Amino acid sequence: MPLPFAIMTTPSFDLGQDHLDLQQWVRQFAVDVVRPAAAEWDEKEEFPWPVLEEAAKIGLYSVDFFATQSFDETGLGIPITMEELFWGDAGIGLAIVGTTLAAASVAATGTESQVGEWVPQMFGSPGDLKIAAFCSSEPDAGSDVGAMRTRATYDEASDEWVLNGTKTWATNGGIADIHVITAVVDPELKARGQASFVIPSGTRGLSQGQKFAKHGIRASHTAEVVLDDCRIPGSCLLGGKEKLDERLAKARALRDASSSGTGGGTRSQPSMATFERTRPAVGAQAVGIARAAYDYALEYAKDRVQFGRPIIENQAIAFTLADMKTSIDAARLLVWRAAWMASQGKKFEAAEGSMSKLFAGETAIKVTGDAMQILGGNGFTREYPVERMARDARIYTIFEGTSEIQRLVIARTISGMQIR
Ligand SMILES: Cc1cc2nc3c(=O)[nH]c(=O)nc-3n(C[C@H](O)[C@H](O)[C@H](O)COP(=O)(O)OP(=O)(O)OC[C@H]3O[C@@H](n4cnc5c(N)ncnc54)[C@H](O)[C@@H]3O)c2cc1C
């Protein structure tokens, strides 16, 4: 009786040579440039411009690198880069990749010519660096993006959009050359009545509000962005007016067809589109931090002697390290799977992107906490890097969707129910 299947080739978990080369290249930069600068910029709580300049010089901070990795058919280029860079340091890592969130937003919602016009301006070039910010969150609209109040109104006479409102928690906000702003164009449609806009460098009416003093990732700049009658050309609406009008008409028809049509379903909401593409990449950042803390704790546990033997010879310590390594590898596999699925255009039937970010974020917090414990008193001091890593890890269950929101997305996706 012949078996009802053909002999299958084994899937490979090995990276190809291109990815190994990429990994080694970013790792070397992390070792040579990022690590030595980490403590200094964390203490200063300032944007690390000289480090960004070094990243630009080797092409790591460049539009070419962003484009090449975005078109990687396996989807693994970005997670590999993120993990290595954030293994170096998360605050500096975020300063280097913060721009890519805005660039990904333009890539997700802009026309081809808008991508060609704006994305290169977000990076600049060595000696003339530019950075960008993606501004969605507001004081009263964090997890609940549908509560957004920043308003964009169209001035037909001048073919301009006028933006008013306050954005908060924006990475690179106020110091960026280009800001991508999400705003309400039709308040009645709630999350479906929003659109994204590019605010070019030097536009009047955009200013930085409060700069936040943070618990971790302190080399990354986080601030409010205030929009006060900020006028931008009609061409700065991402996707164009025609497409927006079509989308709004569809949303109005949906709303009219169903009285509950403007609630939680946010598939066409622009911030959501961006987050879908970026979640596995953010998960990879968390994996990098966790791996850095694990690496440090492993070596420390082999060296540190108490009761006449290295502390790793106690099962309590060795098993903790075994669990740390296991969760890091599990997190990486979830991240790579989600990134691969996104690159293949596969449907996330179980919210695998959210899953990867959820698990990697929680892992980073657990593993960095365990690493501090393994270092004992030294783990609690700023003399040792795991203290900084533990502070940095804390953001990974908060930004780009809190862990609770990731669970909500996963639960709704697997159940098809309106879980609240
Ligand atoms: C350092 C940093 C950088 C950031 N960078 C950016 C950026 O570049 N651009 C940008 O737009 N935003 C950015 N953010 C904002 C970030 O995405 C938000 O902080 C995040 O989405 C959570 O929103 P919130 O802070 O208003 O918390 P809230 O939404 O007020 O949530 C508070 C708590 O309530 C929980 N909660 C809320 N709703 C529910 C629910 N339905 N079910 C269960 N629990 C719930 C949350 O999980 C959380 O624990 C950044 C934030 C920080 C701290």
From TrEMBL:
**Domain Acyl-CoA oxidase/dehydrogenase middle, residue spans:** 133-230
CC cofactor: FAD
- Which parts of the sequence belong to the Acyl-CoA dehydrogenase/oxidase N-terminal domain? 17-122
Alphabetically sorted, this entry's keywords are:
FAD, Flavoprotein, Oxidoreductase
Domain of life, source organism: Bacteria
UniProt domain Acyl-CoA dehydrogenase/oxidase C-terminal: residue ranges: 272-414
Q: What is its EC number?
A: 1.3.8.1
> One of this protein's Pfam families, by short name?
Acyl-CoA_dh_1
Recall the GO molecular function terms of this protein's record: flavin adenine dinucleotide binding; short-chain fatty acyl-CoA dehydrogenase activity
The record's comment on protein family reads: Belongs to the acyl-CoA dehydrogenase family.
Q: Give the protein's recorded name.
A: Acyl-CoA dehydrogenase, short-chain specific
Q: Which organism is it from?
A: uncultured Nocardioidaceae bacterium
